[in-house]
Specification:
The complex is a heterodimer. Chain A is an alpha/beta fold. Chain A is built from five helices and five strands. Chain A has a five-stranded mixed sheet, with helices on one face. In chain A, helix 2 packs across helix 4. Chain A is flat, with a radius of gyration of 26 Å. The two termini of chain B are 35 Å apart. Chain B has one domain: Immunoglobulin-like, CATH 2.60.40.3230. Classes of the chains: A alpha/beta, B mainly beta. Chains A and B meet through helix 2 and helix 3 of A and strand 8 of B.
Amino acid sequence: MKLIQLFTFILAGLILTACANGPKISYGDATAVETTTMGFGSTDLQTIAAKLVDGLISFPPIVQMTSARRPVVFVDKIKNKTTEHIDTESITDTIQTKLLQSGKFRFVDMTAVKAVQEQMQFQMDSGMVDPTKAAAFGKQTGAEFMLYGNMSSIVKRGSGAQDVYYKFTLKLVNLESGIMEWAGEKEIRKSGEKSFMSL
Amino acid sequence: MRTAMLRAAMLAGISVAMVGCAVNETATVNVREDGTTEQILESNSGVLSSSLSIADTKTGFVGNMLKAQVSIKNDSRSDLSFQYKFKWLDQSGFEVAIDGSPWTPLAITPYESKTVQGVAPNPTVKSFKILVQD
């Protein structure tokens, strides 16, 4: 009888230990260098954004222009000409956030136009909002500049080795005059051993 | 006896691996009110501290933003691959835009020195730190 009790006790202990040992999960540094595969990764995104923002805010004519005022910019899509699926909006989001936080530029968000329109329609037409406090139509500021660009890659595979080259180009164009005020480029080269699953 | 030696070897291996991941060189550069700079170099006993050195630091302003330039020299006979990162601090020493700048990989050939540059994330930045790790 005692033996059965002891056995049950040990078994219960083992089950409890098993419950406590869940999957091994840990938090890492989001800014750490990531080299899991040859594909486009977080380090590439962060270095592209950092380099281009540094380039834009330290370009002499831009420094002069932004010393007295904060120009309004609209961000167009970045064309992804690489063979990979890359969320280019995520890159432009990071660039836009950094530029906004630098205090040098202001942005109009074209991704929120529909939601803004719906909210304004509600304020105007629903009869629930005080007309004197409703946001009026036709008062928004137009963007002075457009930020857009391209992302391309060259992938080469040899026997046992592969090389990936990324080029990200960002341009700032004056919407009224059509003059390109600034352009910046960031190149990234990654080399590694060829593996069946990568890219 | 043999098990004890094996354990000691494993411990040594683990400690070497831990040192290998540590931050090896740090340079803190403070810009004083009159524009002069004060540089504080710190290094721990990591692998890089004997083979890498922060040769020169320069600061300037682009508009009202602090611009930093650091020359890193490879003093060894072999190629070195490492990572660097800028940390930006305001006048009171508070870090500005935490995790704003990423660890950036860099490779230097023997006895070569490379220059890295960074622009502060906003005008409140008055000093910076550069961290180097392998």
